[in-house]
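Quarterly update from the structural biology core.
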Amino acid sequence: MALPPPSASGTALVTGASAGIGEAIARQLASRGHGVTLVARREDRLNALAGELHERHGVRAEAIAADLGGAAARDGLVAQLDGLGLEVEILVNNAGLGTAESVFDLDRERLMAMLRINCEALLDFQTRYLPAMVARGRGTVINIASTAAFQPIPGTATYAATKAFVLSLSEAVHEELKGTGVTLTAVCPGPVKTEFMQAAGIEQAEEQLPDVFWMTSEAVAKAAVDAAEKGKRAVVPGLLNRAGALTGQHTPRMLVLPLAKRLWRSQAL
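Predicted structure, tokenized:
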């Protein structure tokens, strides 16, 4: 099994854990006996979830409120975990931001915040915790990418580009880790009904996109943890999403760009 066994001093650090896929992954891991450290900005939700997971599964559950877009906040989080004597044996990089407008229509700071959360924070936590995992000879990283990683998407260009970064980085590091006892799995979900849609300004997509295209956070979380447990390089949950990912990868850009633009605009408007 690629997931390390639960231990008293080990924890699964889950970012973006207050809702959606992050919350569902935390539930999956706690149900398998892993202690969890839940990180997001909404402290009340984190505390409620930590209490529930401890009560239901008997695992140690920490709740730490932090905005991971800042290096100082990430430093503080790491210091807190060190102070508690906890070793991050499972790292789940799930925190993310999204948008649904052309780059020239978007606020510059919003775009930069997306880059800091989706790419910089993810890479920062990887480089902080992978060396110790390799030294111990065990550990797991789960990076949440997206089916948006497989092609440029006009209308959400920066978001798709950040997820392409996550997928490319994850697949390469997965190969670098072979033989160390540590694995890294990239998860590329398609449409999921979470609060992320509202935060990204595309909540109307839930009404316009047929139900067959949607997955639940719970289904994505189970696919993510199952894939990590098997040491897979990447997983695209859902048959239709896998077909779409293949199409996005192999269709010529001169064809896929105008099509992606029309499809995205039809959902975002």
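The first strand starts at residue 10 and ends at 15.
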